Amino acid sequence: MAMTHHNAQDGSLELFERSWRTYRAVVDHDLMEHRSLTSTLGAVLGALVRPGAAAADLGCGDLALLAPLLRSLPLGRFEAVDAAAAVLPLAAQNLAAAAPGPVPYPCRWTHQDLLTWAQQPDAGGGFDLISCSYALHHLLDDDKQRVLAALAQRLNTNGVLLIADVFRQGGESLPSYLERYTERVQTGWQVLSADQRLQVVEHLTSSDLPAEGDDFVERARREGWTHRWIWRGSHQAEALLLLWPAGHGDPGAALQELDG
Ligand SMILES: C[S@@+](CC[C@H](N)C(=O)[O-])C[C@H]1O[C@@H](n2cnc3c(N)ncnc32)[C@H](O)[C@@H]1O
Q1: C-alpha 125 to ligand 1 mean position (Å)
Q2: What is the pLDDT of residues 117-173, one digit of tens each?
Q3: Ligand 1 center from residue 253 Cα (angstroms)
Q4: Residue 235's pLDDT is what?
Q5: What is the pTM of this model?
Q6: How many Cβ atoms from other residues are within 10 Å of residue 205's Cβ?
Q7: Are the C-beta atoms of residues 148 and 141 closer than 8 Å to each other?
Q8: 84 lines ligand 1 (CB under 6 A)
Q9: In degrees, to the nearest 5, what angle opens at C-alpha 219 toward C-alphas 215 and 224?
């Protein structure tokens, strides 16, 4: 059943509730460069995560690429959050199957809007790591900022936030961004069927509202975050941002070998 969410468009979850296989094909064919992103995430998490860390992933999807990475980390607990109910059993299966034996830490599978989750009081304790990949761009910029404000309250001291998402370039309007991404799908994603390409284009033109990268980090700064761009894809859209509360220790020191 569809749930209440803060996404700008009501139909934004349809692709994930009903046509998960199309998004799966996008990831399997590496059309959004998840492989390079995941490899960078592996290096970052390996350097930052300490034994017993509490981690949460917002807009987790089926965790297909993150699951092996999560199984390699010495976590104390893990919570996965998604507004599309259909993906949570897939995420649980993928985490279980990613390595031999039972998952060695308690997991919680939460069917909830990520802004609602971010704003709720911290019943089970704070988090050392919160990640969110390719979900925030469904929210209006003011709601993205509300997420940033609320997540600062959910982190433990020295906790970090990792946001992978699509971003507009400086000065790029939303229509220009959507036009160039549509062109990229229509001309470069031939490995998908024509029907799948159409589903993707319909989803992105109706539901995607990526922030301008510089505006997003400025809003993050206003909410008390310090940032570092960690990875950029080759299409001036996908990128990974590391954020930590200003005044906490700079985790960047542990990442010096990574390119900014
Ligand atoms: C493009 S998929 C990304 C999945 C996975 N994180 C990845 O990087 O491959 C976006 C996911 O975010 C979820 N999502 C979208 N809006 C959300 C919201 N407001 N709250 C929670 N989850 C949301 C969708 O249901 C979907 O599973």
Answers
A1: 23
A2: 999 987 778 999 999 999 999 999 999 999 999 999 999 999 999 999 999 999 999
A3: 30
A4: 96
A5: 0.94
A6: 13
A7: no
A8: yes
A9: 145
What's the rounded Cα separation, in Å, for the pair 40 and 94?
A: 20
16 CB less than 6 Å from ligand 1? yes
* Pocket of ligand 1 contains residue 82 by CB under 6 Å: yes
Question: Distance, CA 59 to ligand 1 centroid (Å)?
Answer: 3
Nearest to 241 by CA among 251, 1, 249: 251
Provide the edge-to-edge strand list for the sheet that holds 225-232.
Answer: 107-111, 75-82, 53-58, 127-133, 155-166, 238-245, 225-232
User: What domains, with CATH codes, occur in the chain?
Assistant: 10-255 (3.40.50.150)
Q: Whose CA is nearest to atom 10 of ligand 1?
A: 135
Query: Chain centroid to CA 100: how far?
Result: 26
